[in-house]
């Protein structure tokens, strides 16, 4: 009876801690995906609002800055094509909802007018104003997936959901306003907790905090899984190590410009705030909001001993259904570090929701199924990697 009662107490303790981890993560995700942050992009100062928020969180946790000026910010610039103004598409008299019925390809230039469409092929329409062909293409797609572009093309491309137009489209009226920002200033947020016994050795946690921002002056892309979830994990680990001083120093870097081409991480690796050879291991976190099917580890085949360590920890504690290996890939901010010789994993969860780079990637449908277990896995990995008891 005592054994059963003790087991119940242990289960209750573990379950309540998991709930606490998830609840704290949800607060961060709700904040980052709110309208105030405008999709953490380049319209309405969304990415700047997010950077200010993160700077304040770093200060609240007494994180040490790498700069003597007590700033966590590392600034860099890039051109960015934005859509800050009007966004209207009417197809055959039907007003379409941006993000739901259509998206404008991110490299598109602005355009305004009414046009007739004719088929280019089975999924593509070309446009004419009855005098000549105009640089407007309408393409039917199965899923709307948006992105960020750094330049402006000499055409406009509108993607519409194929299933929404079974009979095709004959006429279209559009108002699309774009603005190229030639030198958009953004910032990485960087800081660390000093290690107890080996302060010159670093474990690094990274996550990009930018997302796609706004398409027009009303529609924004919340980016809950991508990547408010990764940022919330980073801040959760920051909270843990603030209370449990590590042997190695632990750095926390939130990157900007990932969606525009891994810009922040590339700039950082070319301008590191401490020697890259001091990094014992780096863990990049993106898409951590599910986990029904476990996690995938990019670079598992590159760093086999560390991957085997992750697997053994998971098998011992039964955290996740599966830890799936994947090879080298340039699909997130770990990439530029690996190219510089830094051992690094990129970890993302599998299963659950399928919303990605669309307006449906929202907090309320993000399950955070294995958030707490992934957190425990990473803490245990760092503990063993840094030689802590």
Summed up:
This protein is α/β, with parallel strands linked by helices and 389 residues long. It has helices at 2-32, 46-60, 224-243, 263-270, 304-317, 334-339, 371-385; strands at 73-82, 87-91, 94-95, 102-104, 111-119, 124-128, 133-141, 156-161, 171-176, 179-193, 198-208, 213-215, 219-221, 248-255, 279-285, 295-298, 323-326, 344-349. The strands form three sheets. Strands 1-10-14-11-15-18-16-17 form an eight-stranded mixed β-sheet, sandwiched between helices.
Q: Would you give an account of this structure?
A:
The protein has about 400 residues and is α/β, with parallel strands linked by helices. The chain folds into two domains: about 15-80 and about 180-385, Zn peptidases (Aminopeptidase); about 85-175, no CATH class. It has helices at about 1-30, 45-60, 225-245, 265-270, 305-315, 335-340, 370-385, and strands at about 75-80, 85-90, 95, 100-105, 110-120, 125-130, 135-140, 155-160, 170-175, 180-195, 200-210, 215, 220, 250-255, 280-285, 295-300, 325, 345-350. An eight-stranded mixed sheet has the order 1-10-14-11-15-18-16-17, sandwiched between helices. An eight-stranded mixed sheet has the order 3-2-9-5-6-7-8-4, with no helix packed on it. Strand 12 (about 215) and strand 13 (about 220) form a beta hairpin. Helix 5 (about 305-315) crosses helix 7 (about 370-385). It is elongated. The two termini are about 30 Å apart.
């Amino acid at each position: 009876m005592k054994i059963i009662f003790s087991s119940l107490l242990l289960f209750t303790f573990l379950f309540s801690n998991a709930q606490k981890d998830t609840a704290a993560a949800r607060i961060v995700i709700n904040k980052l995906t709110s309208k105030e942050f405008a999709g953490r992009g380049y319209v309405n100062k969304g990415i700047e609002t997010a950077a200010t928020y993160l700077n304040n969180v770093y200060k609240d946790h007494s994180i040490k800055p790498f700069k003597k000026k007590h700033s966590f910010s590392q600034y860099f610039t890039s051109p960015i094509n934005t859509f800050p103004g009007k966004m209207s598409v009417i197809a055959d008299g039907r007003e379409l909802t941006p993000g739901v019925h259509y998206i404008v390809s991110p490299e598109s230039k602005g355009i305004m007018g009414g046009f007739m469409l004719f088929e280019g092929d089975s999924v593509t329409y070309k446009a004419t104003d009855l005098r000549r062909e105009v640089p407007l293409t309408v393409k039917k797609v199965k899923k709307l997936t948006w992105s960020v572009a750094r330049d402006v093309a000499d055409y406009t491309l509108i993607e519409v959901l194929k299933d929404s137009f079974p009979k095709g489209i004959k006429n279209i009226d559009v108002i699309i306003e774009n603005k190229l920002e030639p030198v958009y200033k953004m910032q990485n947020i960087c800081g660390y907790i000093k290690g107890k016994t080996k302060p010159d050795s670093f474990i690094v946690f990274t996550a990009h905090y930018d997302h796609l921002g706004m398409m027009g002056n009303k529609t924004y892309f919340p980016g809950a899984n991508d990547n408010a979830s990764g940022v919330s994990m980073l801040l959760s680990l920051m909270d843990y190590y603030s209370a449990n001083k590590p042997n190695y120093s632990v750095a926390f870097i939130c990157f900007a410009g990932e969606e525009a081409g891994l810009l922040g991480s590339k700039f950082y690796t070319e301008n590191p705030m401490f020697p890259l050879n001091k990094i014992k291991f780096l863990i990049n976190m993106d898409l951590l909001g599910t986990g029904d099917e476990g996690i995938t580890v990019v670079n598992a085949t590159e760093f086999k001993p560390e991957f085997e360590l992750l697997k053994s920890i998971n098998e011992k504690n039964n955290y996740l259904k599966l830890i799936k290996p994947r090879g080298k890939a340039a699909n997130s901010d770990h990439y530029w570090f690996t190219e510089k010789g830094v051992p690094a994993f990129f970890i993302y969860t599998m299963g659950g929701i399928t919303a990605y780079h669309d307006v449906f990637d929202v907090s309320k449908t993000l399950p955070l199924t294995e958030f707490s277990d992934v957190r425990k896995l990473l803490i245990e990995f760092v503990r063993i990697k840094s030689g802590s008891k």
